[in-house]
Amino acid sequence: MLTELALLCAVLQGGVSRVAVDSSTSCPTAAEVETRLGALLPPVPEGAPREHAAITTSDGALRVHLTGADGTPIGVRTLTLDVSCADRANVVAVVIAAWEAQQRNEAMPAPAFPRAAPALETTASPPTAPPAPAPQTIWTGEITAGPAMLYASGNLAPTAVAAATVWRRRLGGRLALMGAWPRDQTLGPGQAQWTRAGATFELAYRIPGRAGRLDLHGGVVAGALMARGEGFDSNLTTRGFSPGLAGGVDWSWSLGRIVLGLGAGLWGWTDQRLVSFSTSPATFSLPQLELSLGASVGLAF
Fold this sequence. Notes:
Elements: H1 2-13, E1 19-23, H2 30-40, E2 51-58, E3 61-67, E4 73-79, H3 85-102, E5 139-152, E6 155-168, E7 171-180, E8 183-187, E9 190-209, E10 212-230, E11 237-255, E12 258-269, E13 273-276, E14 282-285, E15 289-300
Parallel strand pairs: 1-2
Antiparallel strand pairs: 2-3, 3-4, 5-6, 5-15, 6-7, 7-9, 8-9, 9-10, 10-11, 11-12, 12-15, 13-14
Helix pairs in contact: 1-2, 2-3
């Protein structure tokens, strides 16, 4: 149908094609290209000089050389076409018509004709494994220390507390060390200076909130009692094991790796006494419950 239309246009226009075509190949022939040029370009007046187009083949490609009527080269185009001879003639005619209209040596994109789609490979590629998730931090830890005040039997005693806590989500294990400033107690004719120190082994539970974290903790205490007499006939220094229980509640804030906190704790000790065996025997029962209030600062890791 395309060939018949091109021939019809050439018959209607009449005259000679503006470009004389020479072809060294039969696909397309010079006549096929000139017929299509007759449909694309107006005919040249009778007796007017004609431009020349030479079509050659090289390695399966078409080379089109266009020269002016005076022999001046206009352009050279190499076309690689995997189409029928009729479509090749159409493409060559379009290239020559564009050159003739522009009359300048200018690079032009080759007209693109649809080609058969490449056969799809039937072998399915193995599915790509999803990327491994980034490892999540399961264990975290905190180390804090700070001053506190112990209250017992109406008396206050300065205290220092240091704690290390390892957390797994909301549950944690807590190790704390405490030591109280020595306290004086009148005992018969003299005085006794005594203090306690201990280490706690506790379980902890954390309740996170917008304003901070609330930690509840409790466990056992392995303590040591130290006492020294003054003003007696024979002043002795004694030491003994002081077991007990401990619990508390802490409120903390995290500023990056810095941890600030306030806490309250309750210490429960076994029944222990200071005894004087002087001429006037005397006994003093040490407090079994002590309340501590303190502040702390530390690092999270």
